[in-house]
Write a structure and sequence with these properties.
heterodimer, A: 296 residues, alpha+beta, six-stranded antiparallel beta sheet, B: 185 residues, mainly beta, 4 helices, 12 strands, 14% helix, globular
C-alpha cells in the first residue's frame, strides 16, 4: 500500500456495490478502490451460480482464495504444461476407426465450507451440478509478490465476450486503469488476435475462430447455462459424498482432534484391506523360517 | 564459508544459437530458456532469460507469462507480434524489427509470427523460474479442459470442441502451412 493509505480514523462495514448478471448466475463485487481494501491489498467478489451454471475458465493476475458459502459442484484448475490424467476409454465405432477419446486434467468436487486455492495465472472453472445455487466468496490478493502488475485485479477469460467485473470501476471513475486497458468492450484473451493467427494456431476453420473470439455468443456474462448437464470424466469416488461417508469423515476428524492413537492407522477401508492383505503375505513369507528356499 | 560459494559462483551461461535448445522443430525454430535451476545466480537476481529463433512464416502459438513480465529484444530479422489484454483488446499488433524492444506484461496473451528466416530474440523475464502457459497446441490450457467445458464455454458443438482441443499437434512452435514450407536441410 502507498504511504498513508492505511491511516484510518474509522472503519466501515462494506457491501458489494456492483453486480454483473450472467445467463446462469451473478457476480457481485466490492469496489477494489475502497480505502480499506486498498490498504489490505485485496479485491473481493461474490459469485452465485444457478443449477447447471458453468463459470467460464479464467485466470487472474494474483492468487485467489475462494470460500464456498453454499452449494456443491465441480471445479478444475489447469496447470500449464501438466498432463491430462483423466482419460476416457477409446471407443470403436462400427464401420469407423477409433473415435478420439477425451482427456483432461483433474476435476475435483467442492461443497459448503471448502476453501479453494487458485495460484496466479492458473485457469480455473467451476460448475454447479446440484439444485441449490452455489455461492462462492473470492478474494484476490493483488499485493501478493506473484502479481507483477499493478494493484488492479484482472480476470483473463479464455472464452466469451463478457465485461471485466473489476475494470468497470476503473471505467466509472475514469482513472488510470481505463487508459491502461484502452476501454472495456468485453472480450477474452483470444479475441484480440487476428483470425489468421488463430486459424493457424489452432488449425481450425474460420467459423470456430469466430466462436473462439466470442462473436457467435449472445449468452450473457461469464456464467453460462449447460441445459443438458455437464459431462466430465470423473471416477466414482469423486461423487459428492453423502450420508454414511460424510459421517465417517466427520468421525475421523473428531478422532484426529481427540489425538486418538488410531489416527496413525490408515483411515480408509481399502487401505485397511490392502494392509490386511499385505500382512497376510508377510506372514506367509515369514512363517516357514526353516525353509530357506521360501524366504524372499 | 561464503568465499567458497560466492567467489567461485558461475557467472556466465550461453543460450545463443549454438547451444542445445529446450524446444526444437526443424521446420519452425528453437527455444532455449535459462532459469535459476540451471544458472543459480539468477535466484539472487530474480530474473531469467529466453532465446528464441523462429523461421519464416512459422508461429509461436498464443501464450502468456504466468509469473513474470517479459521484456523482449529483437536480435535479428523481424516478426509480427500481437499482444492482448484481459479485456480482449489488442494492445500491440505490429511488426517488431531488429534492435526494438517490446514489454509483454504478466498474463497478457502474445503470439508471434516470424517474417524472416533469421528472426531471433532474447527475452528477459522478471522471475527466476518463469512459466509460460500456451493457449493453443499440445500443452495448451484449452486442451486440458474437459470437452464439455470447452464446448459450452466457447459455444461450440462437441465435434468443433474436439477440433479446437486436438487439431494442433505442436507444443509451442508451429511450422508454416504446407504451401509456405521452407526446404529443410
Amino acid at each position: 500500500p502507498q504511504q498513508n493509505e492505511c491511516q484510518f480514523q474509522r472503519l466501515n462495514a462494506l457491501e458489494p456495490d456492483n453486480s454483473v448478471k450472467s445467463e446462469a448466475g451473478t457476480i457481485e463485487t466490492w469496489n477494489p478502490n475502497n480505502d480499506q481494501l486498498r490498504c489490505a491489498g485485496v479485491a473481493l467478489s461474490r459469485c452465485t451460480i444457478q443449477r447447471n451454471g458453468l463459470r467460464r475458465p479464467f485466470y487472474t493476475n494474483a492468487p485467489q482464495e475462494i470460500y464456498i458459502q453454499q452449494g456443491r459442484g465441480i471445479f478444475g484448475l489447469i496447470f500449464p504444461g501438466c498432463r491430462e490424467t483423466y482419460e476416457e476409454p477409446q471407443e470403436q465405432e462400427q464401420g469407423q476407426g477409433p473415435r478420439p477419446q477425451d482427456r483432461h486434467q483433474k476435476v475435483e468436487h467442492f461443497r459448503e465450507g471448502d476453501i479453494i486455492a487458485v495460484p496466479t495465472g492458473v485457469p480455473f472453472w467451476m460448475y454447479n451440478n446440484e439444485q441449490t445455487p452455489v455461492i462462492a466468496i473470492t478474494l484476490i490478493d493483488t499485493t501478493n509478490l506473484d502479481n507483477q502488475l499493478d494493484q488492479i485485479p484482472r480476470r483473463f477469460y479464455l472464452s466469451g465476450n463478457q465485461e471485466q467485473e473489476f475494470l468497470q470501476y476503473q471505467q466509472k471513475e475514469g482513472g488510470q486503469g481505463q487508459q491502461q486497458e484502452g476501454g472495456n468492450e468485453g472480450g477474452n484473451v483470444l479475441s484480440g488476435f487476428n483470425d489468421e493467427f488463430l486459424e493457424e494456431a489452432f488449425s481450425v476453420d474460420r467459423e470456430i475462430v469466430r466462436n473462439i473470439k466470442g462473436k457467435n455468443d449472445d449468452r450473457e456474462g461469464s456464467i453460462v447455462e449447460v441445459k443438458e448437464g455437464l459431462k466430465v470424466i470423473s471416477p466414482p469416488t469423486l461423487r459428492p459424498r453423502q450420508g454414511r461417508e460424510e459421517e465417517e469423515e466427520e468421525e475421523e476428524e473428531e478422532e484426529e482432534r481427540r489425538g486418538d492413537r488410531r489416527r496413525h492407522r490408515p483411515h480408509h477401508h481399502e487401505e485397511e484391506e490392502e494392509e490386511e492383505e499385505w500382512s497376510h503375505q508377510v506372514r506367509r513369507v515369514r512363517r516357514p523360517h526353516h525353509h530357506r528356499e521360501d524366504r524372499n | 564459508g561464503l568465499e567458497e560459494t560466492l567467489c567461485t559462483l558461475k557467472l556466465r551461461h550461453n543460450i545463443g544459437q549454438s547451444t542445445s535448445p529446450d524446444a526444437y522443430n526443424p521446420q519452425a525454430g528453437r527455444l532455449k530458456t535459462l532459469t535459476s535451476l540451471d544458472f543459480p545466480i539468477l535466484r539472487w537476481l530474480g530474473l531469467a532469460a529466453e532465446h528464441g529463433s523462429i523461421y519464416k512464416n512459422a508461429m509461436f502459438v498464443p501464450y502468456y507469462n504466468v509469473n513474470a513480465n517479459s521484456i523482449l529484444y529483437v536480435l535479428n530479422g523481424s516478426a509480427w507480434f500481437q499482444v492482448v489484454d484481459c479485456s480482449g483488446n489488442a494492445v500491440f499488433n505490429g511488426e517488431l524489427n531488429e534492435g526494438q524492444v517490446l514489454t509483454i506484461p504478466q498474463n497478457y496473451a502474445v503470439a508471434i509470427k516470424s517474417l524472416d528466416d533469421n528472426f531471433s530474440y532474447v527475452a528477459f523475464k522478471t522471475n527466476d523460474i518463469p512459466q509460460i502457459a500456451a493457449l493453443a497446441g499440445l500443452t495448451s490450457s484449452i486442451r486440458a479442459l474437459p470437452l464439455d467445458v470447452v464446448a459450452h464455454a466457447f459455444n461450440l458443438d462437441r465435434d468443433q470442441a474436439r477440433q479446437l482441443k486436438n487439431n494442433n499437434p505442436y507444443k509451442f512452435l508451429v511450422p508454416p502451412p504446407q504451401s509456405q514450407l521452407r526446404a529443410v536441410a
